[in-house]
Structure formats: C-alpha cells, structure tokens
Amino acid sequence: MLSATRSSFKRAYSSAAPKTLTIGLIPGDGIGREVIPAGKQVLEALPSSYGLKFQFTDLLAGFELFKKTGVALPEDTVQALTTSCDGALFGAVSSPTTKVEGYSSPIVALRKKLGLYANVRPVKSVDGIGRPVDMVIVRENTEDLYIKEEKLYVKDGQKIAEAIKRISENATTRIGKIAMDIALQRQAVRELGGSSLHKGPILTVTHKSNVLSVSDGLFRETIKNYYTEHQDKYGSIQYTEQIVDSMVYRMFREPEIFDVVVAPNLYGDILSDGAAALVGSLGVVPSANVGDNFAIGEPCHGSAPDIEGKGISNPIATIRSAALMLEFMGYPEPAAKIYSAVDANLMEDKIKTPDLGGKSSTQEVINDIIKRF
Q1: Which is more confident, 196 or 113?
Q2: Confidence (pLDDT) at 194
Q3: What residue stretches are annotated with the Isopropylmalate dehydrogenase-like domain (predicted)?
Q4: Is 219 in contact with 265 (CB distance < 8 Å)?
C-alpha cells in the first residue's frame, strides 16, 4: 500500500526484531468497537512463517467515555502506549459539531502527547476498479488550525470568533523530510518491480500562500528550501506545488498525476477524505499517525452512528491501517501479505459491505481476507 518503509522508517524499538509485539487497541466510539477487532483478528491470523506473535492491550478513549467520566483520554491510556506498547490501533471518535465544555478530541491529543507529527494516508485503486490512483497524502499532524486556540468576543454588539493558524519552521521541516523520504522509498520499490502509475518520485507541496502569504508562505518556503539544500539526497524527486483549491480540482480530474502530496494539517485532512471518493469509500482508506518512535494505525472513517450495531461496517480501512502500522514498525513483509489479501477481496464482487455495493457483514469480510493468507 505505502511501499515506503523498507529501510529508512524502521523504528528504534523494532531494531531487535522482537518475536512478540504488544499492540494497544483503542476502539473509541461507534463502529470503532466493530472494526478494531478486525485488525486484531487479522494480525493474529498472519502466517507463523513471519515469526511474529502479538499480545494486545485494551485501552479507553473517546467522546462516549468523556460523557461518562468527564475524561476523553485517560492518563492510563497514554501511559500504557508510552511504556508497554510497540504500536497501536485507534478506531474512531465521535466529534460533536457544537462546543462541549471540557472536551477535545483524544486522537488529536494522542498525536501531540506521543509526538506523532505525520498522518500518512495512502490512497490506491485496485487494478481494474475505478479511477487509476496511487498517491500518499502526508499531512502535518500537530499544527495549523488544529492547535485549537480559539476565542469568541463581542465587538460593536456583534459576536466575532477567531482561531489561530500556527505554522512553524521546525514542524514543516520534519513533515517535508518524511514526505520526501516516502517518495524515495516508493520509487525504490517501483525499481524492484512494484507496479505504479509513476515513472519517478514526485512531491507536491499544497498550500494557499497566494492568500495566506505569511503562514502558508512559510510552509511552502521551508519545504522548498529544504529540498533545494539537500539535492544530494532528494535531487531525483520532481518538486511541484499546488494551491489547495487547484489541488482539489486536479485531484478529481487527473488523480493519476499525483504521487506524494504534503500539506498542512487542515488541507491534508480535507484532501485525504476527498481522495477516498476516488477509490470507492472511506471504509477502505487507511492511515498511520507516525512519529520518530511510535505509530498508530487509524482508519480514515468516522464513528458512523447510523450503522453502529448493524454488523455491516467496512473493516478494510482498519485492516489496511494495521498493515501500515506494521510497515512503520519495520515489518514490511507481513504488511504486504495483508495488502495482497485485501486487494484480492476487493477485486471480487462476492463479499463486500454495503458501502461498496455488497450485502456482506463485517465478519464475513474479515473471514474472506484471512482465508487469503
């Protein structure tokens, strides 16, 4: 799926190739409680030839937990992730559309507490299904409007709301670097015979600096300068830019031209959800929240309360996210096995959940993928 972690993204904790990996499971809200077990089942079913065993730690977080306890992200969860887990899977979180005093998103908080500065979202079509797409959207995960520094005040009798958009040189440099490294690794896999729409690595920096000349201007200039200053390593990458509104238009008109797209937090969030429409459903699109020492796999869909409890939620995004987590932990071979099994399922019309036009249950899809190992 990502094909970007065979060497440079092996984490320090995986260098000793442990036989047993401890994975934190954070279902969260809604269908998160239905799809996280899918990731667990698939990891447990991996062939023994990979030499991996898994143990799991059940952890709590979410809006529903907040409504019960007043805490969305317990310190026990953070402590377990930082001290006893090698990686984690996060399901979904319900996000109220109006302000709820004292509540903030637990996944946003986890990204900050664990230093997970990159949200990596591969979007790839299966051969013969839908539009040809093979891109990775790399979203800066810690800044932009998502720092949630807002205020509401009254001026001249009218309410005014303001939000701070923060872009820093440090955060932009590291997101630009990881995006370029992903571009190089994807190209290395292509040269080994992996199929792709692209002949060479392409980096597309997305911004709105024509309007936000200071904040988005800094994002654009920082990545461009880093690319220019490190031509010895990144010179083979074709550097391009797209203003975000043009990026949206071109992504839907000609998605095949994009390889690795790097964007500030808000634009990356919107682009990656929109890109899911190119491959059928949010239910098939994975992501990983990545830092220098940890990775959390997270499906891109929400908590989907309209289908909660019906047993029809699509588990594929979570299953692919589990594979993506393994990639960033330094285990690309079992990850590739999972991707191959998922692709084989998608290429047949028999066993699919309703969001993909089928009539199968969540468990039927899980079983079909596992039998393809």
Answers
A1: 113
A2: 59
A3: 22-369
A4: no
DSSP codes joined into one string, 25-67: EEEESTTHHHHHHHHHHHHHHS-GGG--EEEEEE---SHHHHH
Please check whether residue 18 is in contact with residue 86, taking contact to mean a CB–CB distance below 8 angstroms: yes
Computed over its alpha carbons, how large is the radius of gyration of the chain? 20
**Spatial CB neighbours of 129, under 8 Å, sequence gap ≥ 6:** 279, 280, 346, 347
Average pLDDT, the chain: 91
Question: Is residue 342 within 8 Å of residue 315, measured between CB atoms?
Answer: no
Which of 245, 279, 313 is the last residue in one of the domains? 279
Q: How far apart are CA 289 and CA 175, in angstroms?
A: 12
What CATH number does the domain containing 203 carry? 3.40.718.10
Among 246, 279, 312, which residue terminates a domain? 279
Q: Which of 45-49, 120-124, 179-183, 347-351 bottoms out in mean pLDDT, i.e. has the lowest?
A: 347-351
CA separation for the pair 353, 357 (Å, rounded)? 7
Question: Are both 289 and 306 inside the same structural domain?
Answer: yes
Q: Which helix (H) or strand (E) holds 263?
A: strand 260-263
What pLDDT shows up at residue 185?
86
- Report the candidate in 326, 318, 296 with the shortest Cα–Cα distance to residue 61: 296
SS3 label, residue 207: strand
Helix (H, G, I), strand (E, B), or coil: what is residue 102? coil
Q: Tell me the residue range of the domain where 302 lies.
A: 1-122+281-373
Please tell me whether residues 150 and 16 are part of one structural domain.
no
Q: Indicate if the pLDDT at residue 14 is higher than 70.
A: no
What's the total number of domains in the chain? 2
Give the relative orientation of helices 332-346 and 362-370 as an angle to the nearest 10 degrees: 120
Distance (Å, rounded) from C-alpha 364 to C-alpha 369? 9
- Output the CA torsion sign for 19, 20, 25, 31: positive
